[in-house]
Write a structure and sequence with these properties.
This protein has helices spanning 15-47, 50-71, 79-107, 115-148, 153-179, 181-193. With 194 residues, it is mainly alpha-helical. Helix 1 (15-47) runs parallel beside helix 3, helix 1 (15-47) packs antiparallel against helix 6 and helix 3 (79-107) runs antiparallel to helix 6 (181-193). It is elongated and about 55 Å long.
Amino acid sequence: MESPISNPIPRACSPLRTGLLITLLWCSGFCGISYEILYGRLLGHLLGDQFGVSAAVLLTFLLGIGLGTLYAHRWQRWLWAVEFGIGLCGVAFAFLIDPLGDLLYGRLNIDLTGLGGAMLLSSLLLFLPTFLIGATLPLFAGYLNRASGRSMFSNTYLVYNFAAALTALGIEYWLVREVGLKLATLIIANLNFV
């Protein structure tokens, strides 16, 4: 008898359910890279050291995604909670970035504009969302494996990253220019909630 944790989706899945999973995977890929862009821009405005922030974003996203992938199997039944958590992190970033700046530079009078400070604070703020983002791709692959009855990781990776590539264009050339960084972050967070 299979454990319910290792079998979150019944073997006989309709094409509609599979299509829904692929649509949700597309949205997840869209959100994942959006956060990398938006968080980098928000932290750059907060800390002023774009080089340090960019380095921290790259390093933290790679580390977080790697660790999230490593531990994803533990949350097979909790993909919805992982996506919800990613959305909560986005909302927190949008609403707390200005109060954090006021706290650091106003009340505490801490100078984090240097390379080390910018990288450290950025990495600390980014670790949880990147860890959760890292768990999504393997979780979706597991769901689609069960839905189709065959290995779907390479197809899942293709859909996720294709959505991410389109996002980079949409975020930079349209969304941020139309609504600003904070509202763009809130819009992307709402996609995670869906």
